[in-house]
Amino acid sequence: xxxxxxxxxxxxxxxxxxxxxxxxxxxxxxxxxxxxxxxxxxxxxxxxxxxxxxxxxxxxxxxxxxxxxxxxxxxxxxxxxxxxxxxxxxxxxxxxxxxxxxxxxxxxxxxxxxxxxxxxxxxxxxxxxxxxxxxxxxxxxxxxxxxxxxxxxxxxxxxxxxxxxxxxxxxxxxxxxxxxxxxxxxxxxxxxxxxxxxxxxxxxxxxxxxxxxxxxxxxxxxxxxxxxxxxxxxxxxxxxxxxxxxxxxxxxxxxxxxxxxxxxxxxxxxxxxxxxxxxxxxxxxxxxxxxxxxxxxxxxxxxxxxxxxxxxxxxxxxxxxxxxxxxxxxxxxxxxxxxxxxxxxxxxxxxxxxxxxxxxxxxxxxxxxxxxxxxxxxxxxxxxxxxxxxxxxxxxxxxxxxxxxxxxxxxxxxxxxxxxxxxxxxxxxxxxxxxxxxxxxxxxxxxxxxxxxxxxxxxxxxxxxxxxxxxxxxxxxxxxxxxxxxxxxxxxxxxxxxxxxxxxxxxxxx
Amino acid sequence: xxxxxxxxxxxxxxxxxxxxxxxxxxxxxxxxxxxxxxxxxxxxxxxxxxxxxxxxxxxxxxxxxxxxxxxxxxxxxxxxxxxxxxxxxxxxxxxxxxxxxxxxxxxxxxxxxxxxxxxxxxxxxxxxxxxxxxxxxxxxxxxxxxxxxxxxxxxxxxxxxxxxxxxxxxxxxxxxxxxxxxxxxxxxxxxxxxxxxxxxxxxxxxxxxxxxxxxxxxxxxxxxxxxxxxxxxxxxxxxxxxxxxxxxxxxxxxxxxxxxxxxxxxxxxxxxxxxxxxxxxxxxxxxxxxxxxxxxxxxxxxxxxxxxxxxxxxxxxxxxxxxxxxxxxxxxxxxxxxxxxxxxxxxxxxxxxxxxxxxxxx
Lengths: 510, 362
What we know:
The complex is a heterodimer.
Chain A (H helix, E strand, L loop, with lengths): L7 E10 L3 E11 L3 E6 L6 H8 L7 E6 L2 E3 L4 H6 L2 E4 L11 H6 L8 H15 L14 H14 L4 E5 L7 H16 L3 E6 L2 H7 L2 E6 L2 E7 L5 H9 L17 E11 L5 E11 L3 E5 L6 H8 L7 E7 L5 E3 L5 H6 L4 E4 L3 H5 L6 H9 L11 H13 L16 H14 L4 E5 L7 H16 L3 E5 L3 H7 L2 E6 L2 E7 L5 H9 L8
Parallel strand pairs in A: 3-8, 3-9, 6-7, 7-8, 13-18, 13-19, 16-17, 17-18
Antiparallel strand pairs in A: 1-2, 1-4, 4-5, 9-10, 11-12, 11-14, 14-15, 19-20
Helix pairs in contact in A: 12-13, 12-14, 13-14, 14-15
Chain B lengths: L7 E5 L5 H27 L3 H13 L2 H26 L7 H19 L5 H30 L3 H22 L28 H20 L1 H11 L1 H6 L4 H28 L10 H11 L4 H24 L4 H23 E5 L2 H5 L1
Antiparallel strand pairs in B: 1-2
Helix pairs in contact in B: 1-13, 2-12, 3-7, 3-8, 3-10, 3-11, 3-12, 4-5, 4-6, 4-10, 4-11, 5-6, 5-10, 7-8, 8-10, 11-12, 12-13
């Protein structure tokens, strides 16, 4: 098994973006048939770039690629398909109004025969155990079904080498199990499978071999059975890292926010939140779990004054017990009421920050109205930017760099730093560590814990159940816009929460 | 043969230094001039250097020509400055033409109906107020509809131009002078009542334009309004998230934008043309859009850009008369130069790398 020939050999691959950024620096990589290879690395370590070069999206500046022992040049995704290489991207590339089958044959230069195509798709599905209806429209599908369509699309083009970019990021534990089962089937069929990930337990669960990248450089590859989480983290980060999230006991907790019967419809009349009720205490982290699009966004935006609600109430409870109704007020009115509410939205550069503005100007978003002058005060935001950069160790060329140039982790530090600087009594966070590397994630967990200990009521909407279970004092599970249940964070069971995410109250029989 | 690297690929550049950026632009203009020369030789068999000399002569050939070039530059600059706040907010105000006409119409209305009924200074104050208000309202109508019902800003402002043109055409008949001419003629030609002039007859727009350049720069970059405009332009969602009332900012900004356009109408009627015609703005409401974008919304760069366009335009009409060529030929030359200037922005943002010679051998 050890001395068989690799199907893909990548040698000395270098890719630069501009003059300063080296995304891949002389990377070597071998991919074997009948094996699942994990590519592990922090964000910005060049995993996706490397695979994009194999699938024809980017062209390497230097280096050679061999497939089946022959040197090849991959100029486009079409070239890649001809060589049997197919990639499933993190953001699906499907046409919403077409059916699964139509999406799968889209762009193929073969006689258009929907019936034969459907037949072939059914065949592929039964061979590997996919559950997909070729005639279903994409807009009717769940995220996991869409992903399945993407995988079938690649297999339909006879790919032997399958690349999946962070396939589990959007899946529930149960869906992940199903995906892994299918991947194992494909492995035994002799296909070469590559998954890009930064989750260690997945590497351990599914892959045979793991290749590790750090800052664009190839650190090494090891057989998964010969390694462990600690060793992999060390290789990935370059030094030893503490992998436990702290969870201090809440102190002096009293009700801070009460949401009652909150019902929200989207503009096209779809029910997004259905009679949601819960309360948030000061000095606690309330985790919110749920499949993406189950009303998390609407819930946070309703509290922040950005979402119109049909019915219900959201009351803010002062220390002395008096209540303020927040529903029906816009963010400015909430602020004028004296409620200090900070919100770290999911869309950092599209909502929380302005990508083209520099750090100082972004700090100004919260404070520019201060003072009676017609002109803005530039000094205070500048100082705040400097403090945030210093205290949160933001890596940036200068205060006057547009934030879109910063890496994801640093963007998030700027945003969280600004929101915390407003001294909130309620802190809403949506996917606060999405796309962040190990180090930055722990910085954020730390910041949230500090806020909690200073008496802030924190809402943490997350997608990584492992983190939610370790960080939250209580976890509210949303399922299709309804509260499926609220469980204590300490001692909660991951499978149980996974079940509650997919069916109300976790009743699988229903 | 198939196993070859692609001939070239395009990648994004890091930010270039100011020096390099202007270097690229200079090269673009030089290349444009070379192409212009070749086209001139091939099509007209004239010496291109003679043609270029004529262009310069057209813009600066005499004292009067120099003044006219400066005046036209100022008017175009003022229009570009007026449109900039709207475009910075990503509101496509292509209705500059109509807003100028409405400002001009209001000024003319005051002059025609109130002459000799009020003291001259009262008339001038009324003209200023009326034209700024009319221009502002003409821009605020589409802004209100967009804020309330999310109508399309480009189409709406464009349509408002035609309404303004027809309105002016209608009043050209109502106020026609002399009867039967179908035009308004020079208003108060003998008395010059209500004419606004500072020093010589070219200076007014130049001074106003310089003041407005500085004012626009400060407004956009250092005021709370300017900050709100920038945030709304970059991301409406961010604006709402921090509690900016997007609808209000939209209407307010268009009031400013249209108001300045109205003022340009006032200057055209009271300071330069002393009459009202449907072609008073002469397409400059659209050229101003180009000036604003080409200058990346920087008021000081706009001075240069509007000068360049006016210079080319004046030179073009000179070569048309000097060499008895028709005006289409000068349009070709202007087209080539503008194409290169806009096209070079691509090379400022992206780098094109060709297949390296070394690899070709291997």
